[in-house]
Amino acid sequence: MQRLLILALILFHVALFSQNTAIGTSEKLVFTASYNMSGILTDLAEVKMETSPVKTSKTTLLRLKCTATTYSKWDSFFKIRDLYESYVSPRSLTPYLYKRDIDEGGYYKFMQYTFSHKTHTVKSLKKKRNGKGEIWEEKKNVSIGSSTRDIVSTIYNIRNIDFSQFQKGTSKTFKVIFDNKEHVVNIKNLGQEQLSTALGSKMCHKLSISMNNDVLKGSNDNLLWLTADANKIPVFAKFKIAVGNGELKIKSASGLKN
Amino acid sequence: MKKALTILAIISSILAVILSVLPLSNLAFIPAIGSLIFGLAAFYFANKNNQPKHTVQLAFLLTIIALSIATYKSIFTETEVGNTEALEKKEEESVEDSMEILEGLDTEEIDGIEVEELDGIETDELEDVDTNELDDLDIEDEDL
Question: Distance (Å, rounded) from C-alpha B72 to C-alpha A173?
Answer without folding.
Answer: 47
